[in-house]
Design a protein that fits this description.
about 35% helix; four-stranded antiparallel β-sheet; disordered C terminus
Length: about 140
């Protein structure tokens, strides 16, 4: 679930941003109860996109049902605005009572970030060179994560 325009069925991660920024990792295991979950999830995505400083969101689900959502935020003010949103707080309460067997939430400050994208139609990708140039310009050793 990235914030850049792509074909609806394309898989595109959120682009790397200039650090520092924050990543919020929400990992959950759902209950059998799902009434209203899809609509609420869509509404939460709509709301979070309106938060100044929201950078994007990635989401994945395993075949066994483990769900991982990572939201990216520019600063602590953006995090606080999302955390204190009234509709978001209500959805959190409903999640605990109805939709989740368990979940974990991790908030991390991102100190390094880069990306790679293969250039189509060209055997040699320039994306890798751009990625390494960013790392060199920011003092990171090549190949270091």
């Amino acid at each position: 679930m990235s914030d850049h325009p792509v074909a609806p069925d394309a898989v595109v991660p959120v682009a790397a941003h200039e650090p520092p920024y924050y990543a919020v990792v929400f990992t959950s295991v759902p209950t059998e109860e799902s009434d209203g979950y899809g609509e609420t999830s869509e509404r939460m995505e709509e709301l979070v996109r309106g938060v100044p400083g929201f950078l994007g969101m990635d989401h994945a689900r395993t075949p066994g049902g483990l769900s991982i959502t990572v939201g990216y935020f520019k600063d602590e003010a953006a995090l606080q605005e999302w955390r204190s949103d009234v509709e978001h707080r209500a959805a959190q309460r409903r999640g605990r009572t109805e939709w989740y067997e368990r979940y974990t939430l991790h908030v991390a400050k991102v100190e390094r970030s880069h990306g790679y994208e293969r250039s189509h139609g060209d055997k040699r990708s320039h994306g890798d060179e751009r990625s390494h140039e960013y790392e060199r310009s920011h003092g990171y050793a090549r190949g270091r994560v």
